[in-house]
Amino acid sequence: MIAELYVCASLTAVDGDTVRCDGQLMRLLGGGIPFASGIDTPEIGSHARCLKERKLALIAKGRLRELLEERGLRIEIKGIDNTPAHRPLVNIYTRDGREVGSMLLAEGFARKWRPRHKNDWCGDTSF
Question: What is the CATH number of the domain that holds 45?
Fold first, then answer.
């Protein structure tokens, strides 16, 4: 699939790895390959499995919110997920070419995602 560029009038952080572009939910790939690799951040609110995960989720969301405030972001759609929401799978690039999800990973706000692997945000001491 050839990447498709997307323009948003409004771009907001839903959680650490999901954004809302003009009402459309989009999942960050973090430079990964659809359905093969990507990033994962802690679940927010009632989706969290423990208080620690809920707190980490708010921190990751806050950092993503900061990154989204930068002007000149470029969104590339790489695919559509298999969930009922059919979220576009995206890479978001800063004006200087850095990929936002990869930045979250490098800064420790996200972990690598791969199929059939669930990150443990409650028992793990890293983050």
Answer: 2.40.50.90
